[in-house]
Fold each of these.
Amino acid sequence: MMHFEKIILFFFCLCQVTLMYPNELLQNSYLRKGISLNGRWHYIVDVYENGYYNYRWEPHDGSENPGSGAFFLNSKPKDKMDLVEYDFDAAPTINVPGDWNSQKEKLFYYEGTVWYKKSFNIPNYDPSKRYYLHFGAVNYRADVYVNGKKLGTHKGGFTPFNFEMTGLLTAEDNFVVVKVDNKRSKEEVPTLNTDWWNYGGITRDVTIYELSPTFIENYRLQLNKNNPEIISGFIQLNGAQKANTDVSISIPELNLEEKYTTDKNGYTKISIASKNLRYWSTKNPKLYKVKLSGGSDQVEDRIGFRRIETNGSSILLNGQKVFLKGISLHEENVMRGGRAYSMEDAKILLGWARELGCNFVRLAHYPHNENMSRLADEMGILLWEEIPVYWTIEWGNQNTYANAENQLKELIERDKNRASVIIWSVSNETPLSEERTTFLTRLVHKARAMDDSRLISAALEDHGKEDDPNIMVVADPFAEELDILSFNQYYGWYGGDINNIKNIRWEIDIDKPIIISEFGAGALQGYHADNLTRWSEEFQELLYQETLPTLARIPQLSGITPWILVDFRSPRRMLIPIQNGWNRKGLISETGNKKKAFFTLKNFYSEMDLIE
Ligand code: GCU
């Protein structure tokens, strides 16, 4: 083989290798002008993954000459004799973004593979530009192909990812094929068992970004945690001209403009002094327009600057003590059905939280779509964001850890510039073991290494003392790794007598803020009975009436996020006629009707405002 041919082969192989994993996340794709691929996509349900494997169970993917059955080729018969046993263009269509469970009745319970196909043109296609394909999220595994070439694979159902597809496109008649597989399995994150619906599909926006040869790939801008008069962070360029390149950042409203030169890796630190910054807060969610330019690229963002820290058992926002009047919520638009994904969905959910009197929301149990953190920035609502390290994860499996860490990384990369996000949570209700504590501690260290400006927590569990069940404790060695001690407690619903709630107390000897990350009771909206009848609105109301003042006696209490804002679908909740596949702990029903306990919590928060 000639020397020249060896070089070509090397770069071809390198290209293949680099194509298999997503590229670094394009920061702030949200405000970039892109080509949306949202809309109707053709889909093929492939229970036996016949479009991926041949009859000997050998993958077409990656083979030198994939068989005619390889769905990612989007093949058409060459002539009337030719055999092609699938046809995307004759297949039905489905909305993207959106889960398949709530769109197609036959797919309501479906867990498996669905193939999606979308044809597209690139207006004013410019081969000198670079092209990225960005997904807000796909649940759970996505294998992505463009014009029959594999871009790569992504696992994790709730975080964004993008692939570069430069050189693979033409001005017209392109097609993207995505194999989506939402099967659960023990070693995944989450694992087999969750208390939420396993909505599968391309559940968030899909967008093509046309980028200049050298562009702004990433940046971070937040108030310096040690000096509130300095904005610090970095800019990272990507491209052939990334090294020793001038970049600039301006905040017009502050008459600030600073120039930097990137290092050999296209990176530069940022440090901007400003004495007249108006800090972002819940009462004054001030956002500044920030303009960044580098290479031949310009991006704009809207960023709030604030400090969040703890002092003993207090949480301080810009140095002022704050009590987190919160609520938990899942990512569902229950009236439309299925996964929430739009700004309209976000306005419904955060609108209800605001109506409740909340200044804080726990986005359980996985990263929600970016509209939530963007809207929370605008509304002045603080956020707890979480990765789905939930219940019985395979703690000893290194692939499982790598997956969890990657989802944490993708979440932090996406939302690190969002003032509303104050807490990264690495887990929920995980059983104690050495392997589990090692696994979670590694995640905490990763989160701190990526972002030392926010607080780290996790939803732990409490239990009653042997010798006195009225005394509750949180005996968890992992607590010492956390900035905030949070735990879920269900006294009066899962165990314990609702009439005894007033007599319980917690013995927690820790000088850290405490958040009660869950408590609650199920109630079927509209079912009324005496307040000791389980599933009645009155029972749920009584539990809130008894629990709230009892929690208030915890000296370190700095926040609560009761479980949960809205009833949500769960395959674990099959009590007919009460649950019918819904977890009924919501304060609002799936028809948008408020239960009596909604007003109990609302009053509790409004009385707290009077004290503040
Ligand atoms: C747990 C868990 C939730 C679940 C809730 C319940 O605390 O964290 O995901 O939905 O209890 O049982 O309703």
Note: Residues 122 and 171 are 5 Å apart (CA to CA).
Amino acid sequence: MNRKNIAPEIPATKLIFDVDAIRADFPILRQNIHGKQLVYLDNAATAQKPERVIKTLDNYYREYNANIHRGIHTLSQKATEAYEKARVKVQHFINASSAKEIIFVRGTTEGINLVAQSYGRTRLKTGDEIIISEMEHHSNIVPWQLLCEQTGAVLRVIPMNDDGELIMEEFEKLLGKKTRIVSVGHISNALGTINPIKKIIKVAHSCNAIVLIDGAQSVPHTAIDVQTLDCDFYAFSGHKLFGPTGIGVLYGKQSLLENMPPYHGGGDMIKMVTFKKTLYNDLPYKFEAGTPHISGVIGLGEAIDYVNDIGFDTIAAYENELIDYAIREASAIAGLKLIGTARDKASILSFVMDNIHPHDIGTVLDHEGIAIRTGHHCAMPVMEHFHVPATARASFAFYNKREEVDLLMTALEKCKEVFK
Ligand code: C6P
């Protein structure tokens, strides 16, 4: 059966920017894997880094590596200035009202744990309720389970339908006087679903619950305005946003952060220490104990400049076309079932194939030079919902091309041949 006869043609008319020029910014993409041109479709796990970011890191270590907020010497001042400049870039990137609301953490995971332990542990008591959803990443499940064990709070879960969309009526039924925290993902890493977070935040606030948004999968694809959203906390990771690994951001409303105790103790988060009493530093330093990931922060700032230069209107328009194309092409492969068919969907194509384990798909694809992720994607409850042990997941960035989608589809047909 010829797929091309089935898949409706989508004209590549609106391809807005020069994707080849963009690809030239990413040196890692210029390599062969098993003798084939690399097709990198594992962007939801981590995105590749543009030359600018790599050069910024290189420059930092060559020219002004020093500890920050401590030294009177020139290098330390230079490093401190670059670090704090990056904080302001992040502030503007998500439209926070103050740089004090930007806390540098290791990633989304640490951001969520910080809120659970600092906000949650000091406020929640037995019988209070925390609402998450069935499609959360483990990073947005386990920290709340730990908090429940510590406080006696109860975890409630918004169910999803078989397209992988949250059932909003069920969410509203779960909400009540006992709800203290609602924590949901903006975009599901296992399904690609874009959740209606603005509505979730509004409804949760009407019950006086605070809302944390896990933005790990959304920041690379869509502009974020935390003030318009009115979320209380927003967490994301730098490495999915074309920046370094080991650095991430927790945004929190200043009024909340001011009243939260430190998460970690150590250097830089204090004003004064005696054995009797310690005075904590002001925001945001109260939450940044110890020497931070200085190069990571500076590199993240450069990554933000890079995506801003392309612009989210352009990115979203291009990526929407690409995912639509990928969905239509994949739907035309007999024996392939998409997992996650929400109406609002971002750049993630999760699927299973008849009689072929996802890990085998991943292995065959790797031999074709195509990198995808296979497994439960740290979202085991999603796998349980769809009664699958794992899925194969191709995830796209703005440097991916239709030709790469075509190569993926050809390789999937090859998988069928290999395992028939
Ligand atoms: N998802 C994926 O392949 P960290 O590891 O802290 O940078 O991000 C954790 C995280 C939290 N929430 C969501 C929605 C995520 O997708 C992730 C990371 C990767 O899907 C690695 S498991």
Note: The chain is about 40% helix and 15% strand.
